[in-house]
Amino acid sequence: MKNITLGILGGGQLGRMSAMAAARLGIKTIIYTPEENSPASLVAYKTILADYLDEISLEHFATQVDFISYEFENIPVKTVEFLKKLKPVYPDSTLLEVSQDRIKEKTYLNSINIPTAKWAAPTSTGDILSTLDEWKSDEAIIKTVRFGYDGKGQARISRDTNFDTLWSDFNGQTLIMEEIIDFSYEISVIVARDIQGKMVVYGPMLNEHENHILSKTTVPAPMDDKTANSALSMAERLAQQINLIGLLTLELFVTKDGNILANEIAPRTHNSGHWTIDACTCSQFENHVRAVCALPVAPIGRHSDAIMLNLIGKDIEQVQDHIALESACIHLYGKSEIRDGRKMGHITILK
Ligand SMILES: Nc1ncnc2c1ncn2[C@@H]1O[C@H](COP(=O)(O)OP(=O)(O)O)[C@@H](O)[C@H]1O
Ligand SMILES: [Mg+2]
Question: How far apart are CA 169 and CA 171, in angstroms?
Fold first, then answer.
């Protein structure tokens, strides 16, 4: 295999774990991030510290790499459009654009017959109230269309909500309104698709949140085969329709009556796939690296059931309880400062 250098936009833990998977394949990684001492930089060959819109630095970055990918979805589409004239960037900007904007995301999913919660794009209090009437509902969720994560940029509303405060809290941002799904549980599926169109899937995983942040993932998700298979094929259909080269994650709700609704697309590796490092022969990170470097994806080779526990903020102290256990695989992201809500690491317990 020829020597490959992969450029990754973003310096978080997802980039770090992709860089580690790349290293195992003999692939060098160059991280492009505005953040000093980022988790990914600590394990990469090199880092370029610059703003995502700094075209001189972007060009300098592109000349040093063979392929480019990104590890979070808030990279400006403009950055990817600029870079793709210089080197292959996977996944393509179409997927990035769709997953950055909840209205585009839901419109796209519905256009390929993937069902979602009912949604609307209100621009006034009148719109919100008339949509509640139309849905014969007293409550809904309002989300900012862009930049939401870990439940940030969301509010549950009812007819009694003070809408003046709501609009001013959201400060002129474009909003989406969604029906509240009374789900039984939440799952996710990860799909990697290579340049030849070959696909591999991980999941479905069962995901449990605390304070809107993923806290625990269980695989396999305790669900019937029929529902599990339809979740897998939904993710594969999405990957195929959008002509994915790379890896994406589909977050889904399973409703009380057994239907599956898509919630969000992440154009990247996902926290709910961290267990794949220890329970599979080819992790989500390795298949991400393979697909974006135009190599074939490999069968996932899941050899164990697993539970992944996120270490959020002070949870990192729990490492002491697991450090000497045989089946606990500990992963720490090298973040020096512990902050509330900050993802510090995770533990995968193999079953
Ligand atoms: N329409 C909905 N009905 C019920 N719960 C929802 C709905 N949308 C989001 N949630 C809950 O909020 C969580 C975060 O919402 P999500 O849209 O995934 O945003 P993000 O992960 O970007 O913060 C979901 O995992 C789910 O638990
Ligand atoms: Mg989400």
Answer: 5
